[in-house]
Amino acid sequence: MSGLPKRQRVAAYAVILSGERILLSRLSPAISADELWTLPGGGLDHGEDPRDAVVREVHEETGLDVEIGETARVYSAHLPGVWRDGHRVDAHALRIVYDGWVPVDSPAPRVVEVDGSTVEAAWQPLASVLDGTVPVAPMVLEALADHRPYRHQRLGAYALVRREDAVLLVRISARGFHTGSWTLPGGGVDHGEPPRSALVREVREECGVECGVGELVAVHDEHFSGTAPSGRFEDFHSVGLVFAATIEDDAEPRLVEEGGTTDAVAWVPVADVESGALPVLEVVRAALRAAEPRRSRSS
Protein backbone atom coordinates (compact mmCIF):
# COMPACT_ATOMS: atom_id res chain seq x y z
CA MET A 1 0.00 0.00 0.00
CA SER A 2 3.05 2.27 0.20
CA GLY A 3 2.58 3.43 -3.40
CA LEU A 4 -0.91 4.79 -2.77
CA PRO A 5 -1.51 8.54 -2.67
CA LYS A 6 -1.24 9.85 0.87
CA ARG A 7 -4.18 11.76 2.29
CA GLN A 8 -4.29 13.34 5.73
CA ARG A 9 -7.50 14.78 7.16
CA VAL A 10 -8.02 16.72 10.39
CA ALA A 11 -11.56 16.81 11.73
CA ALA A 12 -13.33 17.98 14.89
CA TYR A 13 -16.27 16.28 16.61
CA ALA A 14 -18.32 16.61 19.79
CA VAL A 15 -19.68 14.17 22.37
CA ILE A 16 -23.06 15.75 23.20
CA LEU A 17 -25.04 14.07 25.98
CA SER A 18 -28.41 14.91 27.49
CA GLY A 19 -29.46 12.64 30.32
CA GLU A 20 -29.29 9.08 28.97
CA ARG A 21 -29.15 10.18 25.32
CA ILE A 22 -26.38 11.07 22.89
CA LEU A 23 -26.67 13.24 19.78
CA LEU A 24 -25.54 11.39 16.66
CA SER A 25 -25.48 11.87 12.87
CA ARG A 26 -26.22 9.10 10.37
CA LEU A 27 -23.73 8.77 7.55
CA SER A 28 -25.05 9.01 4.01
CA PRO A 29 -25.17 5.87 1.79
CA ALA A 30 -22.32 7.37 -0.21
CA ILE A 31 -20.11 7.06 2.88
CA SER A 32 -21.53 3.86 4.37
CA ALA A 33 -23.80 1.43 2.51
CA ASP A 34 -25.04 0.12 5.86
CA GLU A 35 -26.77 2.25 8.48
CA LEU A 36 -24.03 3.81 10.58
CA TRP A 37 -24.16 6.62 13.12
CA THR A 38 -21.28 8.82 14.18
CA LEU A 39 -20.49 11.87 16.28
CA PRO A 40 -21.55 15.17 14.74
CA GLY A 41 -18.58 17.01 13.30
CA GLY A 42 -16.34 17.04 10.29
CA GLY A 43 -13.25 18.27 8.53
CA LEU A 44 -11.49 21.55 9.24
CA ASP A 45 -11.34 24.11 6.46
CA HIS A 46 -7.85 25.39 5.68
CA GLY A 47 -6.84 27.84 8.43
CA GLU A 48 -9.96 27.16 10.52
CA ASP A 49 -9.73 26.84 14.29
CA PRO A 50 -10.91 23.36 15.42
CA ARG A 51 -13.36 24.88 17.93
CA ASP A 52 -14.94 26.99 15.21
CA ALA A 53 -15.03 23.98 12.92
CA VAL A 54 -16.91 21.74 15.33
CA VAL A 55 -19.50 24.45 16.10
CA ARG A 56 -20.04 24.95 12.35
CA GLU A 57 -20.20 21.24 11.60
CA VAL A 58 -22.60 20.43 14.44
CA HIS A 59 -24.96 23.15 13.22
CA GLU A 60 -24.78 21.91 9.63
CA GLU A 61 -25.44 18.30 10.63
CA THR A 62 -28.00 18.79 13.44
CA GLY A 63 -29.30 22.37 13.20
CA LEU A 64 -28.34 22.93 16.85
CA ASP A 65 -26.04 25.53 18.38
CA VAL A 66 -23.43 23.77 20.48
CA GLU A 67 -21.12 25.06 23.17
CA ILE A 68 -17.73 23.42 23.46
CA GLY A 69 -15.55 22.61 26.46
CA GLU A 70 -12.04 23.88 26.96
CA THR A 71 -10.22 20.60 26.38
CA ALA A 72 -10.31 17.85 23.78
CA ARG A 73 -8.94 14.40 23.07
CA VAL A 74 -7.11 13.60 19.86
CA TYR A 75 -7.42 10.24 18.09
CA SER A 76 -5.21 9.07 15.24
CA ALA A 77 -6.24 6.44 12.69
CA HIS A 78 -4.02 5.14 9.87
CA LEU A 79 -6.26 3.71 7.14
CA PRO A 80 -4.18 2.39 4.24
CA GLY A 81 -6.19 1.26 1.22
CA VAL A 82 -9.49 3.00 1.95
CA TRP A 83 -11.61 4.53 -0.79
CA ARG A 84 -11.67 8.33 -1.03
CA ASP A 85 -13.35 10.11 -3.94
CA GLY A 86 -13.35 6.96 -6.05
CA HIS A 87 -9.71 6.07 -5.43
CA ARG A 88 -7.79 3.94 -2.97
CA VAL A 89 -5.54 6.05 -0.78
CA ASP A 90 -3.22 5.70 2.19
CA ALA A 91 -5.30 7.77 4.63
CA HIS A 92 -4.38 9.25 7.98
CA ALA A 93 -7.25 10.70 10.04
CA LEU A 94 -6.70 12.98 13.03
CA ARG A 95 -9.89 13.43 15.04
CA ILE A 96 -10.23 16.11 17.69
CA VAL A 97 -13.14 15.27 20.02
CA TYR A 98 -14.60 17.89 22.36
CA ASP A 99 -17.14 17.75 25.13
CA GLY A 100 -20.20 19.62 23.86
CA TRP A 101 -23.68 20.58 25.02
CA VAL A 102 -26.81 22.26 23.67
CA PRO A 103 -29.58 24.11 25.57
CA VAL A 104 -32.15 21.86 27.21
CA ASP A 105 -34.95 23.56 25.28
CA SER A 106 -33.31 23.07 21.88
CA PRO A 107 -35.58 21.99 19.00
CA ALA A 108 -35.43 18.51 17.55
CA PRO A 109 -32.23 17.95 15.56
CA ARG A 110 -32.37 18.14 11.78
CA VAL A 111 -29.82 18.15 8.96
CA VAL A 112 -29.18 21.64 7.58
CA GLU A 113 -26.43 21.07 5.03
CA VAL A 114 -27.32 19.90 1.51
CA ASP A 115 -25.49 16.97 -0.10
CA GLY A 116 -23.31 16.51 2.94
CA SER A 117 -21.87 13.35 4.47
CA THR A 118 -24.82 12.86 6.83
CA VAL A 119 -28.53 12.40 6.09
CA GLU A 120 -30.13 12.32 9.55
CA ALA A 121 -29.56 13.61 13.08
CA ALA A 122 -31.18 12.21 16.22
CA TRP A 123 -30.88 11.74 19.95
CA GLN A 124 -30.11 8.06 20.45
CA PRO A 125 -30.43 6.12 23.73
CA LEU A 126 -26.95 5.80 25.20
CA ALA A 127 -27.65 2.22 26.30
CA SER A 128 -28.60 1.25 22.73
CA VAL A 129 -25.34 2.70 21.44
CA LEU A 130 -23.26 0.85 24.01
CA ASP A 131 -24.98 -2.53 23.51
CA GLY A 132 -24.78 -2.36 19.71
CA THR A 133 -28.50 -1.93 19.01
CA VAL A 134 -27.69 1.37 17.29
CA PRO A 135 -24.81 0.74 14.84
CA VAL A 136 -22.08 3.33 15.33
CA ALA A 137 -18.67 4.12 13.91
CA PRO A 138 -15.77 2.86 16.09
CA MET A 139 -14.89 6.47 16.93
CA VAL A 140 -18.13 6.83 18.90
CA LEU A 141 -17.35 3.97 21.28
CA GLU A 142 -13.73 5.06 21.57
CA ALA A 143 -14.73 8.59 22.53
CA LEU A 144 -17.40 7.40 24.97
CA ALA A 145 -14.91 5.10 26.70
CA ASP A 146 -12.70 8.11 27.39
CA HIS A 147 -15.50 10.56 28.17
CA ARG A 148 -15.96 11.81 31.72
CA PRO A 149 -18.77 14.17 32.80
CA TYR A 150 -17.68 17.72 33.47
CA ARG A 151 -17.00 18.10 37.19
CA HIS A 152 -18.70 21.16 38.61
CA GLN A 153 -18.56 22.16 42.27
CA ARG A 154 -20.78 25.06 43.25
CA LEU A 155 -21.02 27.07 46.45
CA GLY A 156 -24.54 28.33 47.13
CA ALA A 157 -26.26 30.45 49.79
CA TYR A 158 -29.83 29.69 50.84
CA ALA A 159 -32.42 31.32 53.11
CA LEU A 160 -34.49 29.63 55.79
CA VAL A 161 -37.41 32.04 56.18
CA ARG A 162 -40.18 31.09 58.61
CA ARG A 163 -43.59 32.68 59.10
CA GLU A 164 -45.51 31.03 61.93
CA ASP A 165 -45.84 27.35 60.90
CA ALA A 166 -44.80 27.85 57.28
CA VAL A 167 -41.49 28.07 55.43
CA LEU A 168 -40.75 30.04 52.26
CA LEU A 169 -39.90 27.70 49.36
CA VAL A 170 -39.36 27.93 45.61
CA ARG A 171 -40.13 25.28 42.99
CA ILE A 172 -37.50 24.16 40.50
CA SER A 173 -38.46 24.69 36.86
CA ALA A 174 -37.88 22.43 33.88
CA ARG A 175 -34.52 24.15 33.33
CA GLY A 176 -33.03 22.99 36.63
CA PHE A 177 -31.94 19.80 38.33
CA HIS A 178 -34.77 18.04 40.22
CA THR A 179 -37.58 19.60 38.18
CA GLY A 180 -40.81 20.02 40.17
CA SER A 181 -39.17 19.73 43.59
CA TRP A 182 -39.30 22.52 46.15
CA THR A 183 -36.23 24.00 47.80
CA LEU A 184 -35.05 27.01 49.77
CA PRO A 185 -34.70 30.33 47.96
CA GLY A 186 -31.11 31.11 47.08
CA GLY A 187 -28.46 30.17 44.57
CA GLY A 188 -24.85 30.24 43.52
CA VAL A 189 -22.27 32.58 45.02
CA ASP A 190 -20.43 34.52 42.31
CA HIS A 191 -16.64 34.57 42.36
CA GLY A 192 -15.50 37.04 45.00
CA GLU A 193 -19.04 37.68 46.27
CA PRO A 194 -19.70 37.46 50.04
CA PRO A 195 -22.20 34.62 50.68
CA ARG A 196 -24.56 36.89 52.63
CA SER A 197 -24.62 39.40 49.78
CA ALA A 198 -25.27 36.58 47.33
CA LEU A 199 -28.23 35.43 49.42
CA VAL A 200 -29.80 38.90 49.50
CA ARG A 201 -29.40 39.13 45.71
CA GLU A 202 -30.80 35.67 45.03
CA VAL A 203 -33.86 36.13 47.26
CA ARG A 204 -34.58 39.44 45.54
CA GLU A 205 -34.20 37.86 42.07
CA GLU A 206 -36.34 34.81 42.88
CA CYS A 207 -38.94 36.15 45.29
CA GLY A 208 -39.03 39.90 44.72
CA VAL A 209 -38.41 40.78 48.38
CA GLU A 210 -35.54 42.07 50.49
CA CYS A 211 -34.30 39.83 53.27
CA GLY A 212 -32.27 40.24 56.40
CA VAL A 213 -29.56 37.60 56.84
CA GLY A 214 -28.97 36.06 60.26
CA GLU A 215 -26.73 33.27 61.52
CA LEU A 216 -25.53 30.26 59.61
CA VAL A 217 -27.77 27.33 60.58
CA ALA A 218 -26.57 24.50 58.32
CA VAL A 219 -24.04 23.43 55.72
CA HIS A 220 -25.47 20.89 53.31
CA ASP A 221 -23.86 19.17 50.33
CA GLU A 222 -25.22 16.99 47.55
CA HIS A 223 -23.42 15.01 44.84
CA PHE A 224 -25.16 13.76 41.71
CA SER A 225 -24.96 13.71 37.90
CA GLY A 226 -27.43 15.28 35.52
CA THR A 227 -28.08 17.83 32.80
CA ALA A 228 -27.45 21.41 33.89
CA PRO A 229 -29.64 24.34 32.79
CA SER A 230 -27.03 25.09 30.11
CA GLY A 231 -27.57 21.61 28.67
CA ARG A 232 -24.18 20.33 29.81
CA PHE A 233 -24.13 16.91 31.45
CA GLU A 234 -22.28 17.36 34.72
CA ASP A 235 -20.89 15.48 37.69
CA PHE A 236 -22.29 18.05 40.12
CA HIS A 237 -21.29 18.74 43.72
CA SER A 238 -23.36 21.37 45.49
CA VAL A 239 -22.24 22.86 48.80
CA GLY A 240 -24.97 25.00 50.34
CA LEU A 241 -24.69 27.50 53.20
CA VAL A 242 -28.11 27.90 54.83
CA PHE A 243 -28.70 31.11 56.77
CA ALA A 244 -31.61 32.05 58.98
CA ALA A 245 -33.30 34.95 57.20
CA THR A 246 -36.21 37.32 57.72
CA ILE A 247 -38.46 39.44 55.53
CA GLU A 248 -40.80 42.26 56.52
CA ASP A 249 -44.18 41.14 57.93
CA ASP A 250 -46.06 42.86 55.11
CA ALA A 251 -43.76 41.59 52.35
CA GLU A 252 -45.43 39.25 49.87
CA PRO A 253 -42.96 36.96 48.08
CA ARG A 254 -43.83 36.35 44.43
CA LEU A 255 -42.26 34.85 41.35
CA VAL A 256 -40.21 37.49 39.55
CA GLU A 257 -37.68 35.33 37.71
CA GLU A 258 -38.59 34.56 34.09
CA GLY A 259 -37.04 31.74 32.11
CA GLY A 260 -34.83 30.66 35.01
CA THR A 261 -34.65 27.65 37.29
CA THR A 262 -37.56 28.78 39.50
CA ASP A 263 -41.22 28.65 38.40
CA ALA A 264 -43.16 29.13 41.68
CA VAL A 265 -42.79 30.76 45.11
CA ALA A 266 -44.97 29.85 48.09
CA TRP A 267 -45.32 29.66 51.85
CA VAL A 268 -45.45 25.91 52.56
CA PRO A 269 -46.68 24.41 55.85
CA VAL A 270 -43.77 22.81 57.69
CA ALA A 271 -46.05 19.84 58.37
CA ASP A 272 -46.27 19.18 54.60
CA VAL A 273 -42.48 19.12 54.40
CA GLU A 274 -42.11 16.77 57.35
CA SER A 275 -44.89 14.41 56.20
CA GLY A 276 -43.55 14.09 52.67
CA ALA A 277 -46.77 15.49 51.18
CA LEU A 278 -44.67 17.81 49.02
CA PRO A 279 -41.58 16.88 47.00
CA VAL A 280 -38.73 18.82 48.59
CA LEU A 281 -34.97 18.63 48.40
CA GLU A 282 -33.17 17.22 51.41
CA VAL A 283 -31.58 20.61 52.13
CA VAL A 284 -35.01 21.85 53.28
CA ARG A 285 -35.41 19.09 55.87
CA ALA A 286 -31.79 19.42 56.97
CA ALA A 287 -32.19 23.16 57.49
CA LEU A 288 -35.41 22.77 59.48
CA ARG A 289 -33.84 20.11 61.70
CA ALA A 290 -30.74 22.22 62.33
CA ALA A 291 -32.77 25.32 63.12
CA GLU A 292 -35.27 23.65 65.48
CA PRO A 293 -33.07 23.72 68.63
CA ARG A 294 -32.45 27.46 68.12
CA ARG A 295 -36.16 28.02 67.53
CA SER A 296 -37.05 26.10 70.70
CA ARG A 297 -34.61 28.13 72.83
CA SER A 298 -35.98 31.42 71.52
CA SER A 299 -39.63 30.51 72.15
UniProtKB/TrEMBL annotation:
It comes from the Bacteria. Gene3D superfamilies: Nucleoside Triphosphate Pyrophosphohydrolase (3.90.79.10). It holds the Pfam family NUDIX. Keywords: Hydrolase. The keyword Ion transport does not apply. Residues 5-146, 150-292 form the Nudix hydrolase domain. The keyword Hydrolase applies. InterPro entries: Nudix_hydrolase, NUDIX_hydrolase-like_dom_sf, NUDIX_hydrolase_CS, NUDIX_hydrolase_dom. Belongs to the Nudix hydrolase family. This is NUDIX domain-containing protein.
